[in-house]
Write a structure and sequence with these properties.
With 841 residues, the protein is mostly beta strands. It has 12 helices and 37 strands.
Length: 841
């Protein structure tokens, strides 16, 4: 016997009936009669093989007096049919009014198999279907399983799936059940449209939702696959976006989906009623709790008079106030926001009402679905525990924290009644997801050349919430490895402990004449002061050394031996050479590296031991592709806790994003830094080195103080002070699909680097291998003091204007910049085109 089911376009196309109906014919086979009022013992059973007679009789419940009436027999018949154990059930009357129950048992399933499935494994399908091997075969259950399999494929975007169940009869009333599957191709979203949106363009709203349109690169992701649950979630995302931007009356009326057979995909349309945009007209705080001053909550409000009405700010204010009230001893305080709209002035008067809530306690916290993650990893995200007062704000915060862990596909916290009216049970439902990553990444930039990296990481190591990562990098000019480990809850406190071990090698290239080798270790502690404010404390210890090829370090301090410039040549140089000096010229007489570089080489391996911290304020709406918000980093590092160097390095970096008009985003970027000498002389390697990271259009190490010796490598020396300012406009290409991820940028940069305070001389001794010099039979070392460093350290403002192309590609973020310097130092080096990017696969 073979029967089939076909689904196309998300609709059930065909339902095949399975043989004879299971409902017994009641008209002729059974007639009501008083003679049938028998006892259970007068029921005989025939046709049964596996089911016991007494089991079948038990479905017939006698009435008063132990007699079976017509209603009891009807109920027994229905109950037998509903068990699913029988293909057919009939009731007939025998001699003397005896009741005869004739049954035809359903076969037993010998095995269940799936054929044609390539995209979904047998194990997943077996877990989803209700029919089981060695279980009873049921036509209704097979129909349900067929629909269930089709639904699984629908969730993965394959709406053209065909599922055909086939039953193969075997001896001894057994059957094999085989589901033949024609998977079909993926059904994508061909278009996403918005109706009724005026304040925000369709291009901007596509940034808000998770569903994406199909394009040539869609095979690298799954956002374009039609998922009705995701579309429904997108409705809420759109609504939240409008509420965040002052549209208190917004309604996302519908999300209409239509399958287009010609395009073989879905057309999704969101219908929006925006309403008016509101600002906060007044702000008030009220309390019905005795001895509670409501005005004391004003400092915890994130809502300000005159600002756009923002539902997220209201919700966060409620959470902060309720938590603060709990800390003050008002464990059952509830903060309820209210708002009165002024439709003419388009303002909302916000009132925070602080009342005494119901005295409800948490009886238990039940965890469900965490098959890998340890219970304590989940429970530590709660600021409340069993026996505490129920606080909805703290529960919402715990749910948000669990989602941010990124250990679970879904997290939902619900409440159930406890053992008494003042007790509730918190139920945390979760679905685990993979937390390990193995990636091979590659990239190219005009600074570092070609680069490849292999890394392996685990965000939830051993189910204990630990993070570990190991990576190896090998490139044209940069090589190394790193090992990282993070314990997010040190000693059960909300303090993250990080350990980093790294080794880096930077090779000489067209921008620097020397290479560096660095081996370091850095422990760090991270504190979350608020959701938008974090602090990191760190200690760094690393050993660093410079490497140079021999021809750049074969010092000769005797000017007459290999270099004897004429007075006219000396006068033509900038600055002019001093021929009266007996020292210095020989330090550069055959194109050697700059004096500070060779002095660093002479010092050998240098150990740096430093304490530092970073304070970060982050209100960005999206860390990867921000359009609104502020990001400020302030960091300081003090070197001199042991080691060979001593300094205080201070740096600040701020970025402010703001949406302007027509999906154009403005970016203001300010940065600056100061290096201060503490006790020991500063090294050249301690100085700030700047280039396109400060002002685009300049080469790496292309800005700031530079060695001017015309016969040397003219290395960048760096500086102890820098500042930079940049203004950028980022705009989409409206003629391209949003999913391509391309946008353009125009910008203007300005900045400066100056005040070099590194070495300018050092003393050589008459040894075969003088410090900083490599032995040479042509230019042997000699005694004296190398004082020939002449460098430029002008405080010229460097500036440039340029255009950029930003691509959030499936291969990783890529950026192309072309910048033209408008003002520069006399000895600066420019680089108008710059490219950088990478990928993981």
């Amino acid at each position: 016997m073979k029967f089939g089911l076909r689904l196309r376009g998300g609709l059930l196309a065909t339902l095949i009936m399975f043989g004879a109906p299971v409902v017994a014919p009641m008209g002729a086979a059974f007639v009501s009669s008083p003679a049938l009022a028998q006892t259970v013992q007068s029921i005989s059973v025939e046709g049964n093989r596996r089911v016991e007679v007494e089991t079948i009789r038990s479905y017939f419940k006698p009435g008063p007096g132990g007699r079976l009436d017509q209603g009891a027999i009807d109920d027994g018949l229905k109950a037998l049919i509903e068990t699913g154990l029988f293909q057919d059930v009939k009731i007939n009357r025998g001699a003397g009014g005896q009741i005869i129950v004739s049954v035809v048992e359903n076969p037993v399933i010998g095995r269940i198999a799936f054929e044609g499935n390539k995209k979904i494994k047998d194990e997943q399908l077996t877990a989803e279907v209700q029919s089981k091997a060695r279980g009873t075969f049921s036509r209704a259950m097979v129909q349900s399983d067929t629909l269930r399999i089709a639904e699984i494929y629908r969730r993965s975007g394959r709406y053209d799936v065909r599922v055909t169940p086939e039953v193969i009869e075997q001896p001894n009333n057994r059957v094999d059940l085989i589901f033949t599957i024609e998977e079909g191709s993926k059904t994508g979203v061909k278009s996403i449209d918005f109706v009724g949106n005026v304040a925000f363009s369709s291009y901007r709203l596509r940034d808000v939702i998770k569903t994406r349109e199909s394009n040539l690169l869609s095979f690298l992701g799954s956002g374009d696959i039609y998922d009705p649950d995701r579309v429904e979630a997108d409705r809420d995302l759109i609504r939240r976006f409008y509420l965040k931007n002052g549209f208190a009356d917004v309604q996302v009326v519908a999300a209409l989906t239509e399958y287009d057979p010609e395009k073989k995909g879905f057309l999704v349309t969101f219908k929006i009623e925006e309403g008016s945009q509101y600002r906060v007209g007044a702000l008030d705080f009220r309390s019905s709790i005795p001895n509670f001053d409501p005005s004391s909550m004003r400092s915890f409000s994130r809502v300000n008079v005159g600002s756009l009405y923002n539902v997220e700010s209201v919700e966060k204010s409620v959470e902060d106030m309720q938590i603060e009230a709990s800390r003050r001893g008002y464990a059952f305080a509830v903060v309820r926001p209210g708002g009165d709209r002024n439709f003419e002035a388009h303002t909302v008067s916000v009132v925070f009402n602080i009342d005494e809530g119901p005295r409800t306690y948490i009886e238990r916290i039940n965890l469900r679905g965490n098959t890998r993650t340890r219970d304590y990893v989940i429970r530590r995200e709660f600021d409340i525990s069993e026996g505490d007062a129920y606080n909805r704000a703290l529960v919402d915060r715990a749910e948000r924290r669990l989602k941010n862990l990124d250990y679970f596909k879904t997290v939902k916290i619900t409440t159930e009644p406890g053992s008494s009216s003042d007790r509730v049970i918190l139920v945390v439902d979760m679905e685990e997801k993979s937390t390990g990553d193995f990636s091979v990444s590659g990239g190219y930039s005009t600074t570092d050349g070609a680069l490849a990296e292999v890394s392996i990481s685990e965000r939830n190591l051993l189910g204990r919430g630990l993070f570990a990562k190991a990576s190896v990098t090998y490139g044209q000019y940069a090589r190394g490895y790193s090992l990282s480990f993070v314990e997010p809850y040190l000693l059960d406190y909300r303090v993250a402990l990080g350990l980093d071990l790294y080794q880096r090698q930077q090779l000489s290239n067209s921008y620097i004449s020397y290479g560096t080798k660095t081996l370091g270790f850095s422990p760090r502690l991270g504190f979350s002061l608020r959701e938008d404010l974090s602090l990191q404390l760190r200690y760094s210890i690393y050993r660093q050394e410079i490497t140079l090829p021999s021809y750049l370090a074969n010092c000769n301090n005797n000017p007459g031996s290999a270099f004897n410039p004429s007075p006219a040549f000396a006068a033509s140089q900038t600055p002019p050479l001093d021929l009266t000096s007996t020292n210095g010229l020989g330090c550069y007489n055959d194109g050697e590296a700059s004096l500070p570089v060779r002095k660093e080489l002479a010092n050998g391996k240098t150990l740096t031991s430093a304490l530092g911290y970073t304070l970060t304020y982050n209100t960005l709406d999206n860390n990867k592709n921000p359009t609104d918000g502020l990001l400020i980093d302030f960091r300081q590092d003090f070197a001199g806790v042991g080691g060979d160097v001593s300094y205080l390095k201070t740096a600040a970096d701020g970025k402010y994003y703001a949406p302007l008009v027509s999906d154009i985003v403005g970016l203001v970027h300010l940065q600056g830094g100061v290096l201060t000498k503490i006790s020991k002389d500063l090294r050249m390697l301690d100085q700030f080195q700047m280039g396109p990271n400060l002002v685009r259009g300049f080469a790496p190490n292309g800005i700031g103080p530079r060695d001017l010796n015309p016969f040397g490598t003219q290395d960048a020396l760096g500086g102890t002070k820098y500042w930079g300012a940049s203004f950028e406009l980022q705009m989409p290409f409206w003629f391209l699909p949003k999913e391509v991820g391309l946008k353009g940028a125009v910008y203007a940069d300005a900045g400066g680097l100056y005040d070099y305070k590194g070495p300018t001389s050092w003393t050589l001794t008459n040894e075969v291998n003088a410090p900083g010099c490599i032995p040479s039979t042509v230019n042997p070392s000699s005694t004296g003091t190398c004082t020939g460093l002449v460098y430029d350290d002008s405080k010229v403002i460097r500036s440039s204007v340029g255009v950029g192309l930003i691509w959030q590609s499936p291969f990783g973020p890529l950026r192309f910049d072309y910048a033209v310097p408008l003002s520069k130092g006399k000895y600066d080096r420019t680089q108008e085109f710059r490219f950088g990017g990478g990928t993981s696969f």
